Amino acid sequence: MNKFLEQWGEAANTTLGFFWMAVWAFALGYLISSMIQVFVTEKKMQNAMGKDQRKAVLLGTFFGFISSSCSFAALASTKSLFKKGASFVASIAFLLASTNLVIELGIIISIFLGWQFVVGEYVGGILLILISWLLIRLINPKKLIQKARKNLSEKDEDDDDSSKSWKKKIKSEESWAKVAKQYGMEWKMVWKDVTVGFTIAGIVAAFVPDSFFETLFINTGNGNSDFGFFTILEHIIVGPVTAFLTFIGSMGNIPLAALLFGKGVSFAGVMAFIFSDLVVFPVLRINAKYYGWKMSLFILFLLFTALVGTSLALHYGFELFNIIPDASQVNIQEQEFFKIDYTFFLNLAFIAVSGYLIYLGFFKKKDLMYMKEMAPKSKLLESVLKYAALVCYVWLAGGMVVKYLIN
User: Fold this and answer.
1) Closest Cα partner for 15 from 384, 354, 370, 338?
2) Which residue has the higher pLDDT, 219 or 53?
3) Which of 64, 216, 240, 371 could potentially form a cystine with 98 if both were Cys, beta carbons 3.0 to 4.6 Å apart?
4) What is the pLDDT of residue 171?
5) CA-CA distances (angstroms) from residue 228 to 145, 377, 404?
6) Among 144-153, 295-304, 305-314, which stretch is predicted with the lowest mean pLDDT?
7) Taking a C-beta distance cutoff of 8 angstroms, is the pair 132, 306 a contact?
8) What is the pLDDT of residues 126-149, one digit of tens each?
9) DSSP 366
10) 61 CB-near residues (< 8 Å, 6+ apart)
11) CA–CA separation, 305 vs 311, rounded Å?
């Protein structure tokens, strides 16, 4: 019993420590994302893309890079761009970039995993787009694309006010109030995922023995880092399966990715795990609702194939340049989380910024209407996540009491 209580306290402390490490990064990332989503409209993106496919893919990648990392927001924006005439390959480029090349994800990865994984994330995001583009050109699914366009609703969508330039918007308090509301929406979209994801990471760190990972990911453990091709391929395939089972978004999965790497999972397997936020069932279901099941399954095949190819390319490319990170350098379990350092002051600063944004958007300008389209979420899944998050809070509170008041 004493051992369980000790592990419970350690799990709760690790979870809260993980979140404390990431508070400022979340706030900075979502602030940047909110500003871009208010100041750069989808209509302007589509007008800029034009008809040239190479230009469209390049701009789709760029616009995705500066857009939100939330999968549900990315899916809705991708559908809107595709409906307004963007090519299928440009839409896929936007989708992949907006979930893999975004700034906030890079910041979180740098905190938990280090610079090599940040490079892997951004280089891998570009490779995902290039491989997807190549596959689309080879397969040329014209009928599927035509049918997907027909499956989209014919009703007109209201565009954001695109008559004002971003220079005028940035000087307007009303525009900043919209930024504040979007910032609140970003947190509302991810709080359940982040809560459950970080709690799972803390529980895994404290309770799950290394032998479990050695069984799940073959040839791991005992400091082994010399993996053969088929071992790496198994890690790459199991990584997305693990992500599928947790069904947590990429931001919430990063601490767990760090734990996997620390337990001996290959660099390629961890990158595949991080890239997997678009090959989980909720995304499959939403794409089916937008485009039909055939196109949804094709997108799943496309992204999974690109994911496997990208993870392999990253592993052997990094190995060629001798920059594959050492798993022993990623040992976040033994860190002292709560201390007076740069994280402490950054967190205080961004908590203050968040407080001002909440005041501006939800009190001073509470009557201002602003709503960005989101992909339709499963009510059942959202309810499950909501109650799971509430259970997590009870677990965390109990664990902290056990660690600091009882033990």
Assistant:
1) 338
2) 219
3) 64
4) 76
5) 39, 40, 45
6) 144-153
7) yes
8) 999 999 999 999 998 888 888 888
9) T
10) 93, 94, 96, 97, 101, 126, 129
11) 10
